Sequence to fold (227 residues):
Amino acid sequence: MINPALLAAGIGQSALRTRMALYLAMDEPSGTVYLDSASGVNPGAGHGTLTRVSGKVGAGAAQFDGSTAYIDVASNPAAEIAAADMSISAWVNPTTPSALAVVAGKTIFGNNSWALYLNTTKFWFQVRATAASGYFAQADANYVTGTWVHLIGIRQAGVITLYVNGAAQTATGTNTEVPATSASAFVVGAASSHTAQLYAGQIDEVGLWSRALTAAEIAYLAGGGRP
Fold:
């Protein structure tokens, strides 16, 4: 199916889907299954007090309660990121600040982890293999609860950059180590353990690529576009 918005943005019809490992649009009207429109083989399973609400983009989004809710994507080779370059994106609307909460990613409490996070004041993007420092990028400004924000985390040639509403943030990280693949689940709204770093608020349009997105693709997604 031709996507006129992609063409208007100067992006090839299939370019944005190139090496796209996962895309959860959150548009299902009911149920606990969140379909993967990238490959169809990585659906997410909703758990806890997870509510379907109106989306920032498209028909729906997921509301997380901050204590029990998460979406689990069982480990699958198509959703493993072990390449040198990667991108992860999501629309987020936090309702409650947290000491540390996961928006989406694979988190194993240290090694071989990558995820979008928020803490009490800022959004983060982390990619870590084994190093203890220099592995995350941070938003320039504090976030505001109750406000939709688009996040993209990109690791390219060892440089870790966070984009907020399409703008690259100045605090970048550098890590030449590449995380290994793991058996942990890709989780939206919590750490891969499912019991820690739980997020409170809404999340929409979670995407994952085993490459760095281009400037045109970043602008397109931050402007409300979708694959």
Q: What stands out?
A: The domain at 19-222 is CATH 2.60.120.200 (Jelly Rolls). The mean pLDDT is 85. The first strand starts at residue 20 and ends at 24. The helical segments are 4-8, 215-222.
